[in-house]
Amino acid sequence: MAALRRGDRGADRERARRSPALYPRARQIGGLAVAHSFEAPRRQRHRLFAQADERGRGDGDLAFRPARQAADRTARHSLPLRAAHARLGGQLRCARAGGGLPRTARIDQHRADRDGHRTAEGAVPRPPAQSGAGRGIQRRHRARDGARAGLHHPPLQAHPARRHRVLASLRGDARARHAAPQDRAVGRARRVHPLSLGDVPSGKLAGDVHRLRPHPRGRQPRVGRDRQGQGLGGDEADARKRRQHRRRHAQPPPVPRNARSVTAPEPLRSICIVGGGTAGWVAAAMLAHLCPDLGVELVESDDIGTIGVGESTIPPFLELIAKLGISESDFIRETQASYKLGIEFRDWRVKGETYFHPFGTIGPQAGLTEFYHLWLRAKGHGLARGLQDFAPAAVMAREGRFTLPFAAPRSPIGGAAYALHVDAKLVARYLRRFAEARGVTRTEGIVTDVEARPDGFVRTLRLQDGREVSADFFIDCTGFRGLLIGKTQGVAWRDWSRWLLCDRAIVVQTANAGPPQPFTQVSAQDAGWRWRIPLQHRTGNGHVFSTAHMSDDEATATLLAKVEGETVTDPMTVPFRTGVREAIWRRNVLSIGLAAGFIEPLESTAIHLIYRGMDMFFRYMPAQDCDGHLIDEYNRRMTADYEEIRDFIILHYCVSERDDTAFWRACRTMELPADLVRRIALFRAAGAIPETLDGLFRNVSWQSVFDGMGVIPRTHHPLADRVDMATALPDLDRAADSLARAVAGLPTHARFLADHCAAPPPEGSRA
């Protein structure tokens, strides 16, 4: 409440002259109302009662006695005994604590007179206090005579109308004579419309009538008007006319001096995608599904082939399927897909050794530390189990069995995750049907010329047959050519070939030589590595190599000599370059897929980066002006994703112990990126993995590759020492055995596919 000042004793008389009808009503109702509404805290009330006892101002127990008596009398009315005691008792206790507020001994019946004023029969006001010491004024304000003082409750300090009513109720108190100027300026309070002309139960008074609602801050109550808009001295018709006049001549709120008019930029209305394939149709499908009001046109030509190499995915790819609302089982059938639980690496550390990179978690909860550090300490105490013995995805892959992990969340296999092996061309065909059914327009043609505006924004594409295609925004999916992002926008390519030596791949498809396995197999070769990706009715094979260390003919011969099953396609050579654009997005051109960057598919990240690029675009989707801040943030985040994947791929090469060929010796001696050097040093020191913002590869992935490549930390995390090894070792053995038994009861991968999502053989298949 505003501070009360000592001084001019004529202030009270001046206020009474301005509002002659306020004080009788306020003494009878206003004091009770505020007393009930703003109770002092319990500890503060007890302290004030104790001070009153010391000064001989009254018996502290008497402060509670009227409340109990009033509650007993009120029990025969509509309110229960406990509610009446709480409401009326709180009212009287707060009146006692305030010192200057009226205390009521009897509040059985309250009547409304003909003027609408409330009267409390038997109301006995407390004698006015003579000094600030006994009025419940905060001690920090009681410095000396003439010092500022304030009442207890903070809500009174924020509402002038409430301060006015409290001061009115204190007419007999010395504090009312020293009201602040803003309190003296408040006009007469509004009339309270009478509830009835008969008796009003005290419980009803305590519950409803006392609610004096404050005006919004900065506005004072209108003089002579009640809640119904009826003037104290006029009729309702005049009041209605005055309200209409105020609304008709109302002025708009003033505009701050520093306010500036802001015009929203024009939103995107049309987007053109140049190029098809997996990248183009993923972009088209996401735009059609997430932005149905946006005009989307895709320009591609059947004369320009697509690579279609990326046949293996990682778990985030399933987020794309779910986001588009596509049935997973239907997608698997249409794309001849199979399930993938991880990647098996052969001959990478040394010839003859194998390790597994699983999807999902490893091991049960280990208290305050990661399971890896508990396992690391247990290995020092004689644990014979390997790290992957505790990974459900790795155990299922090893046994050739599969089930959906989320179908058994409380079992040992609940922590596994999975992805898909897919036919990239079938994926593009499926997404094309999906997008065209949702309004995407496909235009057959080859882009021969690009027209740009003076500010560099692309305006129109000219096709070979003379047609023109215009749009507000363009997405470049033209592969390594980079027709828009490279040739038109002039964005340079950042080359990473000094770290990733492989630059070519030989691909071939074969018939399945046996049941498809639920994992990708990657085998190190003399000048690169070889992949094997099983689908339902065929197997994709490829040989990634460095042309500086092996010729195309040698690479092709090596691949054909080691594939399993009869070949169903001729070998195809796919040259590539690893790196990323200096800017993936410039002006109104966004590059997706190979046009934005490429990293060799050792960890199956090609399709993921397509989805990631579009998902990030929706986060920072621009208007037609393509704000530079959005572009800069997008480029920063996407470049960080490419660099993270680059470092993870380099790790497989640089920590290898192989030195049997020039290729592997070059991998071991090359200079590494600074971030990767820091990661390796942290892990060697104490098994620590630095956190990344929204990173793709979690700690489980880094720990699996480090462990598989023989990189062991010098020590484990100190929190692992809190675990008792006498009980931990048997528990770990039981956990591994329990996981093995759970996996043994699962169907095989081939049986699960046949039962839930079997795909018909492709047309023209030799199978």
TrEMBL record:
<feature type="compositionally biased region" description="Basic and acidic residues">
    <location>
        <begin position="1"/>
        <end position="17"/>
    </location>
</feature>
<feature type="region of interest" description="Disordered">
    <location>
        <begin position="1"/>
        <end position="21"/>
    </location>
</feature>
<feature type="region of interest" description="Disordered">
    <location>
        <begin position="95"/>
        <end position="263"/>
    </location>
</feature>
<dbReference type="InterPro" id="IPR050816">
    <property type="entry name" value="Flavin-dep_Halogenase_NPB"/>
</dbReference>
<feature type="compositionally biased region" description="Basic residues">
    <location>
        <begin position="212"/>
        <end position="222"/>
    </location>
</feature>
<feature type="compositionally biased region" description="Basic and acidic residues">
    <location>
        <begin position="105"/>
        <end position="120"/>
    </location>
</feature>
<dbReference type="InterPro" id="IPR006905">
    <property type="entry name" value="Flavin_halogenase"/>
</dbReference>
<dbReference type="InterPro" id="IPR036188">
    <property type="entry name" value="FAD/NAD-bd_sf"/>
</dbReference>
<feature type="region of interest" description="Disordered">
    <location>
        <begin position="53"/>
        <end position="76"/>
    </location>
</feature>
<dbReference type="Pfam" id="PF04820">
    <property type="entry name" value="Trp_halogenase"/>
</dbReference>
<dbReference type="GO" id="GO:0004497">
    <property type="term" value="F:monooxygenase activity"/>
</dbReference>
<protein>
    <recommendedName>
        <fullName>Tryptophan 7-halogenase</fullName>
    </recommendedName>
</protein>
<feature type="compositionally biased region" description="Basic residues">
    <location>
        <begin position="240"/>
        <end position="250"/>
    </location>
</feature>
<feature type="compositionally biased region" description="Basic and acidic residues">
    <location>
        <begin position="53"/>
        <end position="62"/>
    </location>
</feature>
